[in-house]
Design a protein that fits this description.
By secondary structure, the chain is mainly alpha-helical. 52% of the residues lie in helices and 4% in strands. Residues 15-135 form the Mycothiol-dependent maleylpyruvate isomerase metal-binding domain.
Length: 194
Amino acid sequence: MSERPEAPVLRLFPKALEAFGRHVRLITPHQWPAPTPCSEWSVRDIVNHLTAEQLWVPELLMGSTVAEVGTRFDGDVLDDDPAAFWQNAAEAAEEAFRVPGSADVTVHLSFGDVAATSYCAQLTADAVVHTWDLAHGLGADPGLSGELVDFALAEIDSWGDLAGTGLFAPALPVPEGASTLTRLLARTGRRDGP
């Protein structure tokens, strides 16, 4: 019996986490409170957000509901070693998606039940966008691959009206012929450049 091919997102998810993690490892102590393009979030807030997202992954892939997990991952999950807490959470999330059969489960999210691969796609797109946010806050090159940016734009385009969720700023206009990264950022209310 042949193995089923891996869903592309299961290959891209670790790459998105690594792109984010490269920037986490660059953060110096004085940069943690630095502002980012997410107007209400500092560098530490973005790392905390992505770390908490990864902490949820093993729980949800094992069948827990949002109500069962409760407030365990609310607030600041980074403690006094943010980079280490990020790395541990990212590794645990990657490992959870490598468990045989994990891609076939149904995940119970706050807005309903979805396929694990759809959940993974959401996490991947979020990591890509926040990698850009984090890099911008650090004054660094985001270094995002075209493959990750293309995937994130396609995924986020499938979500419909982002501004209506209250989680994103309104989309910005983009010039004709804009790059995929510029279109991705504009779709999420961010401007690529001054």
